[in-house]
Structure formats: structure tokens, C-alpha cells
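Transferring glycosyl group transferase
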Amino acid sequence: MASATTKAISFSVLILLSLCFPSTPSKPTDTDPIPTPWPYQFHSILFMNRSGTLQKTDLWYDWPNGRNFNIIQNQLGKLTYDLEWNNGTSYIYTLDDSDPECQVLHFEVGLLRPNWLDGAEYLGQRYMDGFLCNVWTKVEFVWYYEDVATKRPVFWVFYSGYSAHVMTFEVGRVLEDAKWQAPVYCFNEDKSSLIESIASARTAPIGGFRELRM
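C-alpha cells:
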């Protein structure tokens, strides 16, 4: 199904790929900074770019309730919702009354942990978007930039070139419960496209985990 749902590429699912690769944590020196764990709940607006394909993403991270939500506006395209639960189920859907779409995906892994950067290799300090940042890489899959002064994320880029600029980062902000419900047609086999359990992220081609067999 060639649709807006197939274009949804969320940071949290991309980075889950990195967790499927075996890695040996680097041995930091006593002076190396440690990446700040993500807060248990936050809202962030991201401007994302992949080879000229632009997106604005509202990211809602809610670790205590086992859920993560990416509301993705593709440039001059449909608004796409990517709702992820800690049981490994994701719903990617649109709310277009004339042509509703939904894909249901099942992953072997759940949400990105707040301490997902544990074991990352420190690369030093660099400027990004006007901010002096500490920079780490995780298994050479993602490069992560954190503001030295505030410890907030500023930027990250994947090995494929897919990048995100962090525009806002609101710690403790939570989306109301009613907005976490996938539409009813995601549970209707006639309207939804079900992708059964994805056994191994290592089968994903270069370019992003969401592109796997889509």
C-alpha cells in the first residue's frame, strides 16, 4: 500500500535498530562527560531531514505509561500518526475521513529506554545549530549532540544521513490520555494493513527501520 503511513519514520523506532546490534561499551576516561538520560516524560518538536525529504514531528515520550507518540507532518503531505506501545505494537495511521489508512506493526522490542545512550562512545565537543555540544556515537549507528550548558538534546543523525534538529524540549509535559487511542479502523482487517512480527532488525536496509518491506 503506497500511502502516507509508509513514510512515517520515527526516531524511537530507528534507534531501536541500534539496540539489536551487539556492542561493547567504550571505556570512558575519568574526564569524559556522560550523556544525560532522557526524562521519563517529555514533549519535543523536531525538524527532520532525509536527503531533502522534510518532516516536522511532535514527539511525546511517556516511559511510565509505556507509550511513545510521533505526530508527523510530511512537507506538503498528510499528517501521519505513529503510536508505539511498550508491548512492541505500533499503529501508523491517518485521520483522513475520505481515505483513512492504518498499519499495525509488531516488533520484538518495546520502547526506547531513558538510558539508551549508556555505553555510547564520547567524541568530544562540537558546535551544532549555534550550540556548543558534547557528542556521542552509539555503535556507529547514531550520533547524538547534547547542549553542554543545559544538557538538552540539540541534534542527532543516523548512519543513513537521516537527521533531526530539536526545536523544543519540554520536560514533564504529557499528552492527555484520550489522544493516545488509535482509531477504530486500525482494528478492522478491511481497513488496516497488518505487518506481523518483525523478527530481526538486522534485515532492515540502509535508510531506516520504518522502510523495512514497505
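Residues 76 and 181 are 25 Å apart (CA to CA).
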